[in-house]
Automatic annotation (TrEMBL):
Annotated ranges, domain N-acetyltransferase: 1-150
Superkingdom of this protein's organism: Bacteria
InterPro entries named among the record's database cross-references: Acyl_CoA_acyltransferase, Bact_Acetyltransf, GNAT_dom
Short name of any one Pfam family annotated for the protein: Acetyltransf_1
GO molecular function: acyltransferase activity, transferring groups other than amino-acyl groups
CDD domains to which the protein is assigned, alphabetical: NAT_SF
SUPFAM superfamilies noted in UniProt: Acyl-CoA N-acyltransferases (Nat)
Organism listed in the record: Caballeronia mineralivorans PML1(12)
Keyword flag Acetylation: no
Name by which UniProt lists this protein: GCN5 family acetyltransferase
Length: 151
């Protein structure tokens, strides 16, 4: 497996993101989904990481949007064929490390209550629950978390 920072507009990465959208469509109504589109993921303040299997196929991705006061974790996903191999944990560690390289000290995220694996991953990585931030509103289908990544 390889983990690198890449452009999200590659066909296999676009397909991976589409799989994530399809999955989330089964869990949450549109008004409770806060995904970034492809154009947003290509902005200069976005760090976008891709995990690839031994055949070079994209099996996971994740992004951090660098804001002035914090970074926001977005678009974390591992395809079913990539699960159980520690891909998400490695992607998260890579993203956190790169965010620190850019001076980021605090990461925040929004996920949903039905994504039990994601909630467990974030909790095991030291993320703690918090209230809404930025433009988010209090939504029973949103779980907000944060982690201080540098002192």
């Amino acid at each position: 497996m390889t983990l690198t920072f890449e452009s999200p507009d590659q066909p296999d990465v676009v397909a991976l993101i589409a799989d994530l959208d399809t999955y989330q469509d089964t869990l949450y109504p549109p008004e409770s989904r806060h995904a970034l589109d492809l154009a947003s993921l290509k902005q200069p303040n976005v760090l976008f990481a891709v995990a690839r299997d031994s055949e070079g196929q994209a099996i996971g991705c994740g992004a951090i949007v660098l804001c002035p006061e914090f970074g926001e974790l977005k678009r974390m996903y591992v395809s079913p064929r990539g699960r159980g191999q520690g891909v998400a944990k490695k992607l998260l560690a890579l993203l956190e490390s790169r965010a620190m390289d850019f001076g980021c000290k605090l990461l925040k995220l929004e996920t949903g209550p039905y994504q039990h694996e994601a909630l467990a991953l974030y909790a095991s990585a030291g993320y703690e629950r918090r209230g809404p931030f930025g433009d988010y509103t209090n939504d029973p289908l949103s779980v907000f978390m944060q982690k201080h990544i540098a002192s």
